[in-house]
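U., I forgot to send this yesterday:
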Amino acid sequence: MKVLLIGEYSNVHWTLAEGLRALGHDVTVVSDGDTWKDYPRDIDLRRRGLHLGGTIRYLFDIAKTWPSLRGYDIVQLINPVFLDLRAERLWPFYRYLRRHNGRVFLGAFGIDHYWVKVGMDCKTFRYSDFNFGSHLRDYPFMHTMIADWLHGSKGDLNQRIAEDCDGIITGLYEYEMCYRPFFASKTHYIPFPINRASVTPTSTLDTPSPTLNFFIGIQRERSSYKGTDIMLAALHRLWNDYPQQVKVLEAENVPFAQYQQMMNSSHVLLDQLYSYTPGMNGLLAMAKGLILVGGGEPEHYDLLGEHDLRPIINVQPNEDDVYEQMAQRLLSGREDIHQLQRDSIEYIRRHHDHVAVARQYEALYQASLQH
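Result:
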């Protein structure tokens, strides 16, 4: 098959491309590298600023690239907003892809209309980026998401593409629960892919150490949204109470290559406080042998069909629980750290190997082309 992947979040499309290529498919990735993260791509569509010159250059790059994006069996979009343009301008670009290619799939891999809509119903999830039980959260970025995705042009575009496309692929339990009530017949859950061959195991694996290195990535503009503020507070509290046993590594908006180097010297990663499921960052850490503190709810394991391994230290969305889970399981009780590290690696092998995941995509794509 000839496959076109447009857009990037956390290296999902590039890793999927590696898996599909290993199966013999011809794959092209068009993206901006997920902005400052600078992930690999075949065709670079990066916007170099919002000023007039940057906009003109970006529009020129799109105009030069778009006519070549035809003749593919499969097109997959990372998100309804698949270019760095206003949502109201994107429908013609989508229609061009629709007319000149085979099947079009929409990825449910990040913020979009249905994620906001369902998160705010205060029923589907016990907690999320939007709710604690029956109560809505309140932070600045939440208001932006509501304005853009629930009431704005991004939401309108999302609904049009979701109705029109041939299939919707969800990458996490949460996204599956958001889309299935509305598009049950064309919603398909496939786990995120991790290329284990490209992962460097952490240097701490199977090396006894009296000190545990805790690693956390920070995006200041999304700290409240992701729960990084709460996790960081719990981590600093842990550091203060156990100064001889804890070392803290913090990374703020660093490129992917540098981020990985920092991760490689760590034992534990804190990530995604409000999630039921580990995202790409957490999965990458687990593949390296880090212990993940974050989202690992039973619903997530059930969707995967995993009944034995429980390597994720699942935490509730409050500072006290994050602190207690780390203190009791990793410091006071000193569970078998190395066994948790090995279980993390095995979990990735079972459920997220990029070639195995690519086979699931391959089966879905081929079934769609036969209809």
